[in-house]
Amino acid sequence: MLDAWKEAVVEAPAFYIGWGGLLIGLVFGALIVRTNFCTMGSLSDIANFGDWRRFRSWVLALAVAILGVLWLERSGLADMGSSIYLNGRLTLGGHVIGGLLFGVGMVFAGGCASKNLARAGGGDLRSLIVLFVIGITAYMTIGGLFAETRVAIVDATSVELGIEDQGLDTMLAALTGMDAGMAQLVTALVLAGGIIIYAFADKGFRTSPTHVVAGIGIGLCVLAGWVLTALAFDEFADNPMIASLSYVRPAGDSIDYLMRFTAYDGMNFAVSTTIGALSGAFLMSLVTRKFFFATFQDSGDTLRNLSGAVLMGIGGVTALGCTVGQAVTGASTLALGSFITFAAIVAGGFIGMKLMERFV
């Protein structure tokens, strides 16, 4: 069946990537609104109330995505080496500095890129402006005003690992002499299994359907993204790559798509999932009667949100992803850099909250 699907997608990739990505984004955006899934909010819950349930949702999404990627690779449908996350060069400084900047930024902006997409879909004009600033700043960091500084920092702090890629399973195989396939199976099952046990060990979490559904649902959305782009993968394309959900650079890609619509043959995966998430949040907000227009409260609120957006745009590109793009999508490939980014974002989030307490 997978072979038949792949043949159909390869024959009309623009159609399937556009509409398939839109559908995945719709489900993702609707889930964010319906379950109040929020990575920044999870850190705030921990710091203020000692409530770890939303954090457990976050890591449960990662566990689901890890198991999904394991299935994809062992079925032969996908090779995660064709993603941006796995290579033998660990951009250590980029992951740490970028993650810290993103973590602080998401606190200042009241949420990460995906949460701001959900809020914008629900009528929050602040979040819509935040997304535009994230997208513009991301492009400035990729090849614009901030690009040379980013490249200099990343190059100066990168580490050549001397192995095929930076996957934790590859490292295990290199250290133990274990067969690569067995190392992958052991690493994925131990990590995912440990996370699942950790998540459901808490009675408050396992008796909260909303938090459980959020974690499983977000993980399945990431898996769906991997499946779709793997089916559309063409090794003879100009820039062959498989990908899944991420929302920093895609915010900039979406702005570029809207400005240069006639230059595109159709929506790529980044654009379709971003527009889909915005649309899904909009529809769910209408269904649940949560749609309302909101804007900045005052000049201080404006400055905090926009500075947070700038930090997320710079940090997300430097770290190669965000709370979804690295901490779920990237980490599902078992890439060491993704786990480092995850930890740096969490640290940056707590730093951001301390800064807010002190100066606001």
TrEMBL record:
Primary localization: membrane
Where is the chain membrane-spanning?
12-34, 55-72, 92-113, 125-147, 181-200, 212-233, 267-287, 308-328, 334-353
Location(s) in or outside the cell: Cell inner membrane
What topology does the record note for this protein and the membrane?
Multi-pass membrane protein
Question: Which Pfam family name is an example for this entry?
Answer: Sulf_transp
* Superkingdom assignment: Bacteria
- Work out whether the entry's keyword set contains Ribosomal protein: no
Identify the GO cellular component terms for this protein: plasma membrane
What does the UniProt keyword field contain? Answer: Cell inner membrane, Cell membrane, Membrane, Transmembrane, Transmembrane helix, Transport
Q: Does the keyword Ribonucleoprotein apply?
A: no
Record-stated family:
Belongs to the TsuA/YedE (TC 9.B.102) family.
Q: What is this protein called?
A: YeeE/YedE family protein
- Origin organism is Marimonas arenosa
Taxonomic lineage of the native organism: Bacteria, Pseudomonadati, Pseudomonadota, Alphaproteobacteria, Rhodobacterales
